[in-house]
Amino acid sequence: MSTLTIPRIELPCQSTDYDADLWFADRPDLLEEAKSLCRQCPLRTQCLESAMEREEPWGVWGGEIFERGVVIARKRPRGRPRKNAAVA
After folding, report:
1. Residue 41 annotated as part of some ligand binding site
2. DSSP state for residue 66 in the 8-state scheme
3. Is 13 annotated as a binding-site member?
4. Which of 43, 45, 60, 63 is the most buried (most CB within 10 A)?
5. Three-state secondary-structure class, residue 64
């Protein structure tokens, strides 16, 4: 009998190199880190499409941030915005 060996795909979100909570972090910088790890994932497109179908309430899916079931460009930090915003 021969056994068929299926190559294992390395997915950043399932790797022991990263904390699984990274994809559900509160801090915007950590969410951006998770997004960057998703860029090279071979299942990125399928992950994003599935998350949109399921209307995922939060987290990073397919390299995008979901908040309340909607994809957002960036997550704002917690707390109130500064009164004296820095001039760009």
Report:
1. yes
2. E
3. yes
4. 60
5. strand
